[in-house]
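Sharing a chain and its predicted structure for anyone who wants a worked example. Both blocks are below, sequence first, tokens second.
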Amino acid sequence: MKKDKKKILIVDDEVKIIEVIKSYIENNDFYAFFANNGNEAINLFYNINPDLVILDLMLPDINGEDICKFLRIKKSKVPIIMLTAKIAEEDMINGFDMGADDYITKPFSPRELIARVKALLRRVEVDEVQYDDLYSFRQNDLVIDNISYEVRKSGRLINLTPNEYNILITMAKYPSKVFTREELIHIALSKNFEGYDRAVDSHIKNLRQKIEDDPKNPDYIQTIRGIGYKFGDV
């Protein structure tokens, strides 16, 4: 197995869907692994340590949201793409709240799915970081180290998803600049991101829960009513 070849874990209980995704994944020079239920997915996850997970929301034993939440609780930063037949906006928002990085609904274009896979992997590819893009922030009890990709609060390591980290580092680079949701999507998230603006709100909410002493009265990530968000001076 090539060390530089990314491993993709596909979790779905529909055999035909797995076969289609597996074919496209392998044709794009990734390793494809698959599981048909939640328990199998969790066991396989720890065995192969995948670089990205494509996770169906509706599984016969454990639903995708609970699997996603479990992985985040276990401090995994692996990118997760939710795959589901649910099309309600609230379902998508719930998926992001659980820690998903992207969301695609069935029926879907396999080519679009692969584009999203590649976009997510690009964003978390540490080896491609350019030195002039490196940035570190230290203020009071919050430390952001863009060399090690670590965030610490009061000395404690904070686990962030790739999207949460990218939003935080983007805002911290430009303190007091007010970012609209559209700007955060364009700058911090993938150019292929096609989610709702409210997805940014979900990521901001999660960030506040993790780095703020009082998420309802945030010091670092402040809301500018009617415009967006800014990284405040504490």
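Comments welcome. Residues 126-132 have pLDDT under 50 and may be disordered.
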